[in-house]
């Protein structure tokens, strides 16, 4: 009976001992989760991208990240996005090949080296990503520290399996384990930019770790590198000293240890590591508006991590891309046209916005400054290429010189302002009409008194009247004879003088510029020979039309014009109002002063005069800058469709006469 009672007492004591042992306590102890900021990217600033690893108290990834909090420079970030990111795993296996590595824990069983080999093979077969996305290194002792087995960074399963299969360790009584772990940490963080989860797995029997390791230096180095240390404890049993040693090595770095009496026991640790290949990527729009070092804190509950990162911030630059070589010409239809009825009503303005860091930011405000004063304007439009389009309201703008500036404010509160661009405005109204002067009426006169002729006087008057009629008839006969003689002489040898320029049809031939007078007077039947029997009638020089070097062919919606409109001057205005242009078009889609064609050194340029419907060259709308015209260019003024030609037209094509350019 006493023996039975003693046995029960021993079982109770054993139960309490086991429940209070370090191994059981390590499995039941509640440890806070851990957050590690892996890196911060500011290449797309103001978008900031943060990569984190977040694990719970069991070393597994957080299932719920709804409680995650971000703080930038102490201010909480309200809006951010989280998405999982599978970047793979980079593991460094460290083998503590001491004198027990070739021992078997049970008779006829596998040695510890064989268990290490088989567990690494299981990791390669069942846990490595075959894409390949994972990376494995195996570090073995060489007396001075550790050396990689086969090679660093094995990416394929067969590489890992072949390397461990042919490993035959040199046994060391005391492998330089502290040095090997330092090398493993350096190896794990050798390529941090690839984003993989990186960790160290130590195979050890746990013996005499207190004497082999400098825990403080190893854990500090691992924490600084962000590399957790895991451990697999070899052997059939784990005593308190071994458990305490491995807890001191793994838990502070964010790792864990597993007792591995059998090969399959390592699978739970490998599963935990594989889960960490999926990390979290956080992105948010930063409110930082100064260059320098800034802080970021990521937390969830009691777990948090903090990092300092550098960013360079500059305000946007703004430049106005408007041609100010020509003034803005506002045209009225009468001498008293008010400013708000003069055309054009608006002036397009275009600015280019650039950010020195090449990362576009949102614009929260834009202002148009005229002579330093803000004016109302239509809301600007910002294109994807940073082009900002304004419309300046001209309805109250009088003649003068105006300094134009554009100021923008981005989402960070940084302000950019353009240089002053001077733009001239001219007012064009027709002059006041000159009043017509009328002659004063002549004073009223009394009619002369009638003359009374006596009969004797009347007889004398008849004699005088007869003599006058005789001499008048004689003078007329002599004048007729003189005219006949003079006409015959003129037909025999005299011709009219020939003008120096022009080209006209005549009664007997064609006058062409550049030819000699004799050639210009040649008859059509025998060129080069002057026919004395033909009278050539040559009009004066001002009546001869010069076709010029270019002309416009009328295609659509201009029925008031002939087929050809010659360009004879160096400055031709086109529009709807014949009072202010040389070439008018009677179509409501055409502005009063719509466009202008100017010639210089044989080059023709077309300008838009601020028309409401726009000026188009080859179906592309031109801005304020002039466009060089080429032969066969299509022109559109509203609905009016024309074609521009450099070479002169044929003689058969009808022409439209252009008004004198001095009228503008």
Describe the structure.
The protein is α+β, with helices and mostly antiparallel strands. The protein contains eleven helices and 37 strands. Strand 7 and strand 8 (146-148) form a beta hairpin. Helix 3 runs antiparallel to helix 4 and helix 5 packs parallel to helix 7. 28% of the residues are buried. The model is unreliable at 1-31, 490-547 and 659-664 (pLDDT under 50).
Write a concise synopsis of the structure shown.
The chain is α+β, with helices and mostly antiparallel strands and 664 residues long.
Query: What's the overall geometry?
Result: rod-shaped
Total helices: the number is 11
Q: Helix/strand/pairing class, anyone?
A: alpha+beta
Radius of gyration, taken over Cα atoms and rounded to an integer in Å: 52 Å
Mean pLDDT: 79
End-to-end separation = 134 Å
List low-confidence stretches: 1-31, 490-547, 659-664
Main sheet: strand order: 8-7-6-9-10-11
Record field, number of beta strands: 37
Largest sheet: 6 strands, mixed
Per-chain topology:
Layout: H1 2-19, H2 22-28, E1 34-41, E2 47-55, E3 69-72, E4 75-76, E5 81-86, E6 89-95, H3 112-126, E7 135-141, E8 146-148, H4 157-165, H5 177-188, E9 197-204, H6 209-212, H7 215-225, E10 229-234, H8 240-250, E11 257-260, H9 267-275, E12 278-285, E13 292-300, E14 303-311, E15 317-320, E16 328-331, E17 346-354, E18 363-370, E19 373-375, E20 381-382, E21 387-393, E22 400-410, E23 415-417, E24 421-428, H10 455-493, E25 504-505, E26 510-511, H11 517-520, E27 550-556, E28 564-567, E29 571-575, E30 583-584, E31 595-600, E32 603-608, E33 615-617, E34 620-621, E35 627-628, E36 633-637, E37 640-645
Parallel strand pairs: 6-7, 6-9, 9-10, 10-11, 16-24, 29-30
Antiparallel strand pairs: 1-2, 2-12, 3-4, 3-13, 5-12, 7-8, 13-14, 15-17, 17-21, 18-19, 18-22, 20-21, 22-23, 22-24, 25-26, 27-28, 27-37, 29-31, 31-32, 32-35, 33-34, 33-36, 36-37
């Amino acid at each position: 009976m006493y023996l039975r009672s003693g046995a029960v007492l021993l079982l109770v004591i054993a139960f309490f001992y086991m429940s209070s042992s370090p191994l059981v306590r390590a499995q039941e102890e509640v440890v806070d989760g851990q957050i590690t900021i892996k890196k911060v990217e500011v290449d797309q600033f103001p978008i900031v991208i943060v990569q984190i690893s977040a694990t719970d108290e069991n070393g597994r990834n957080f299932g719920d990240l709804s409680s995650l909090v971000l703080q930038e420079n102490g201010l909480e970030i309200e809006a951010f996005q989280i998405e999982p990111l599978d970047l793979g795993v980079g593991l460094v296996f460290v083998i503590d090949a001491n004198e027990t590595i070739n021992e078997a824990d049970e008779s006829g069983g596998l040695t510890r080296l064989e268990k290490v080999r088989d567990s690494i093979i299981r990791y390669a077969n069942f846990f490595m990503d075959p894409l390949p996305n994972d990376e494995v290194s195996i570090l073995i002792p060489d007396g001075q520290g550790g050396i990689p087995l086969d090679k660093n960074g094995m990416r394929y399963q067969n590489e890992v399996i072949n390397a461990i299969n042919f490993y035959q360790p040199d046994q060391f009584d005391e492998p330089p384990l502290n040095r090997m772990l330092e090398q493993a940490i350096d190896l794990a963080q050798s390529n941090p930019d690839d984003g993989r989860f990186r960790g160290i797995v130590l195979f050890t029997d746990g013996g005499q770790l207190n004497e082999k390791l400098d825990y403080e230096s190893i854990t500090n180095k691992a924490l600084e590198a962000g590399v957790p240390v895991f451990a697999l404890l070899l052997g059939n049993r784990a005593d308190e000293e071994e458990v305490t040693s491995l807890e001191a090595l793994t838990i502070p770095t964010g790792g864990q240890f597993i007792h591995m009496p059998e090969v399959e026991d390592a699978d739970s640790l490998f599963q935990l590591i594989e889960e960490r290949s999926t990390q979290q990527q956080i992105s948010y729009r930063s409110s930082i508006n100064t260059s320098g070092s800034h802080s970021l804190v990521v937390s969830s509950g009691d777990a948090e991590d903090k990092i300092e990162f550098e960013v360079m911030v500059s305000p946007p630059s703004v430049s106005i891309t408007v041609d100010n070589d020509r003034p803005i010409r506002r045209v009225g239809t009468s001498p008293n046209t008010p400013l708000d009825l003069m055309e054009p009503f608006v002036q397009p303005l275009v600015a280019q916005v650039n950010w020195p860091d090449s990362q576009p930011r949102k614009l929260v405000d834009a202002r148009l400054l005229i002579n330093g004063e803000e004016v109302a304007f239509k809301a600007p439009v910002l294109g994807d290429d940073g082009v900002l389009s304004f419309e300046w309201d001209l309805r109250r703008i009088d003649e003068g010189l105006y300094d134009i500036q554009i100021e923008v404010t981005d989402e960070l509160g940084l302000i950019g302002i353009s240089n002053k661009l001077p733009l001239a405005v001219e007012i064009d109204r027709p002059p006041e009409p000159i009043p017509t002067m009328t002659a004063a009426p002549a004073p009223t006169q009394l009619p002369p008194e009638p003359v009374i002729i006596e009969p004797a006087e009347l007889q004398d008057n008849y004699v005088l009247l007869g003599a006058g009629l005789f001499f008048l008839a004689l003078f007329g006969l002599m004048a007729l004879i003189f005219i006949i003689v003079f006409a015959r002489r003129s037909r025999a040898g005299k011709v009219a003088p020939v003008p120096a320029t022009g080209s006209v049809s005549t009664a007997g031939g064609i006058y062409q510029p550049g030819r000699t007078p004799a050639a210009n007077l040649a008859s059509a039947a025998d060129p080069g020979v002057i026919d004395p029997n033909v009278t050539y009638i040559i009009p004066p020089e001002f009546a001869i039309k010069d076709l010029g070097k270019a002309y416009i062919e009328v295609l659509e919606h201009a029925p008031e014009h002939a087929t050809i409109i010659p360009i004879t001057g160096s400055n031709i205005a086109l529009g709807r109002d014949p009072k202010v242009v040389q070439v008018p078009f009677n179509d409501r889609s055409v502005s009063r002063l719509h466009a202008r064609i100017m010639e210089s050194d044989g080059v023709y340029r077309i300008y838009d005069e601020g028309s409401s419907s726009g000026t188009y060259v080859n179906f592309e709308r031109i801005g304020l800058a002039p466009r060089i015209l080429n032969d066969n260019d299509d022109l559109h003024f509203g609905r009016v469709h024309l074609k521009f030609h450099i070479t002169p037209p044929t003689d058969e094509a009808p022409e439209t006469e252009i008004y004198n350019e001095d009228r503008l």
